[in-house]
UniProtKB/TrEMBL annotation, chain A:
Keywords: Membrane, Signal, Transmembrane, Transmembrane helix. Residues 1-23 form the signal peptide. It comes from the Bacteria. InterPro entries: CHP02186-rel_TM. It comes from Desulfobacca acetoxidans. This is TIGR02186 family protein. The chain crosses the membrane at residues 238-259.
From TrEMBL, chain B:
It is found in: Cell membrane; Membrane. Belongs to the 4-toluene sulfonate uptake permease (TSUP) (TC 2.A.102) family. It is a multi-pass membrane protein. This is Probable membrane transporter protein. It comes from Desulfobacca acetoxidans. The keyword Zinc-finger does not apply.
Length: 265, 312
């Protein structure tokens, strides 16, 4: 089997280099075989987000399963913090946040805390505390105050959760493990999830230790008119601007011809 | 039925978008105003990012105004010379305005400034209209109180006529200074970029009462300059901020052109002052909503600033 070769290589490597930063790499674990209902999501005119269902086989009977959805690349985000200036609420400072995942969803069949230790969760980047540990923020404008870090992090989580880009669901009904062996779950991709590659990782744990790992790659791409408009507006802004104006004038004159009476002004 | 707006990066109900266009078109047909000043705030209320709302609205205005301008041009109501001078101002203002939007987006206060300017503008226009229509209604109830309306028009017109750079404007029948049309063009151009409005609701009264143009020529000339000013703003927004959502603009256009026809029909059946007081109430309600946004503690203190900072 093709899959086994890199698996063994990985195991050997981990065995050889025990001083590696990670005690073990997830890739070195037994492969969790999963099947996704589809691997490509297309953003067309009527796109309103999508859902992908995953089915998998638990490598060790009775193991707990945690799944994670992330985008392949992190993003740099600028966050504005509002404060009161006189009677008005306006932006008083800005932080630049690096290393925050664009999408971050964790589904588990029970609370992550009950499955693994905090240390392991941090090491594998499972859960919000791990994200907080990983991101870096620096002040771009305004004055730093104590407590900013917590405020910014909570603000980031709120923004992402309201766009349905982040969530943590620890529910045996959402991540169902039938007979301890077969598991199924789904991830919802919200309309805000933009083009790019996303990865769905599956971690299996038994007695607090990682016993299996699997990864699926999901691709989101704009198609047709959506793809063309976005690409043109970003890559050829001059052409796009002129086109937008010409189409508007054409539409306006066309409408003027149709309603010939010269009715409204 | 949802539609995905590529530049706004969100999906919205298509009937909601066309419906908002239709509502604003209906009002503009009914009241004879451009309606851009209602459209941008409404779009923000349904969650479209402010910069995308303003830029796409400008694009939509190009279409809406060009159909009106075309009709007026055929009737000979466009003073091209006056229009061109206003335009030079408008393009200067529009270019400054787009750079201002870029800067304000960088420091994260675009939305704040936009709302402040809106509150001032809408508050002013709304209360002026409310007072005017209330006076008309009261006057029609007791006819004895009819007083001669003393217009301050001649004084202002004379004052501007004294300034340098005098020119003949044949279509308007005026001999006056070019400075004023230029500076009002600049002001309205800046506002067009900042708010995504055509500016007719300031420009037309200014042309009638301050420059002294005949009403119908003022409207025709205004529509002509709006086409060019909004086209310039749309181009600049596309070049600098990349926030023009063509799909959104076209959906709004479909709604607004259809709505405008129905608005014009309804307008013929209602009394002028009743219509105007209604519009004044709508405008004032919007002002209050935007004002509250500025002074009430926001639901979320931390918000997303536009991602691509100095993306060169």
């Amino acid at each position: 089997m093709k899959l086994l070769a890199p698996l063994f290589a990985g195991m050997c490597l981990v065995g050889l280099f025990r001083t590696d930063a990670l005690a073990f790499s997830p890739e070195a674990q037994e492969k969790v075989i999963t099947a996704a209902s589809k691997n490509v999501i297309q953003i067309g005119l009527s796109y309103r987000g999508d859902e992908i269902h995953f089915f998998g086989v638990n490598p060790v009977a009775g193991a707990d399963v945690i799944t994670r959805l992330t985008a392949e690349k992190d993003e740099v985000i600028k966050l504005s913090v509002k404060g009161k200036v006189g009677p008005f609420w306006m932006t008083v400072k800005q932080y630049e946040v690096t290393g925050a995942p664009f999408v971050y969803k964790i589904h588990a069949n029970k609370p992550v805390k009950e499955i693994i230790s905090d240390d392991l969760a941090r090491e594998l980047e499972l859960g919000y505390p791990a994200i907080k540990h990983k991101i870096k923020m620096h002040l771009v404008r305004g004055k730093a105050e104590p407590g900013d870090e917590d405020k910014i992090f909570q603000g980031l989580i709120n923004i992402k959760e309201s766009d349905n880009l982040y969530n943590i669901v620890e529910d045996p009904a959402r991540l169902e493990i039938a007979g301890g062996k077969l598991f199924k779950h789904y991830f919802r991709f919200p309309p805000k999830a933009t083009e790019g590659n996303y990865q769905v990782e599956t971690f299996a744990f038994k007695n607090g230790e990682l016993v299996g790992y699997g990864k699926d790659v999901i691709r989101i791409q704009k198609v047709g008119l959506e793809s063309w408009l976005t690409k043109t507006s970003q890559e050829s802004p001059v052409f796009y601007g002129i086109m937008a104006v010409l189409i508007a004038i054409g539409a306006g004159l066309g409408v003027g011809m149709i309603f010939r009476k010269g009715g409204h002004h | 039925m949802e539609i995905y707006l590529p530049i706004a990066g969100m999906s919205l109900n298509i009937f909601l978008v066309v419906g908002i266009g239709g509502l604003v078109g209906f009002l503009s047909g009914l009241f004879g105003v451009g309606g851009g000043f209602l459209l941008t705030p409404l779009m923000m209320m349904i969650g479209i990012p402010p910069a995308v709302a303003a830029a796409s609205d400008s694009n939509q205005i190009v279409a809406a105004a060009s159909s009106g301008a075309f009709a007026h041009w055929r009737l000979g109501n466009v003073d091209f010379k006056m229009g061109l001078i206003i335009l030079v101002g408008g393009i200067t203002g529009g270019t400054i305005g787009v750079q201002l939007v870029y800067y304000l987006r960088q420091i994260g206060n675009f939305e704040f400034v936009m709302k402040v300017v809106y509150v001032l503008m809408l508050g002013l226009v709304g209360s002026a209209m409310f007072m005017e229509s209330l006076r008309t209604i009261l006057r029609s109830r007791n006819p004895e109180a009819i007083e001669a309306v003393v217009s301050s028009q001649p004084k202002l017109v004379q004052m501007f006529a004294k300034m340098p750079l005098k020119m003949h404007f044949h279509r308007s029948g005026l001999y006056t200074s070019a400075i004023f049309p230029f500076s009002i063009g600049t002001t309205v151009g800046i506002m067009a970029a900042l708010l995504g409005v055509g500016g007719g609701f300031i420009m037309v009264p200014a042309m009638i009462y301050i420059i002294g143009m005949p009403t119908i020529v003022a409207i025709g000339t205004d529509l002509f300059q709006i086409v060019i000013t909004s086209a310039n703003v749309t181009l600049q927004q596309a070049f600098v901020n990349k926030t023009v959502d063509l799909l959104l603009a076209m959906l709004l256009l479909i709604g607004s052109t259809i709505g405008a026809q129905f608005g014009a029909m309804a307008g013929k059946r209602l009394k002028g002052e009743q219509i105007r007081i209604l519009l004044a109430i709508i405008v004032l309600a919007m002002t209050v909503k935007l004002f509250l946004d500025l002074v009430l503690p926001p639901e979320h203190l931390v918000s997303l600033a536009p991602a691509k900072g100095g993306g060169h």
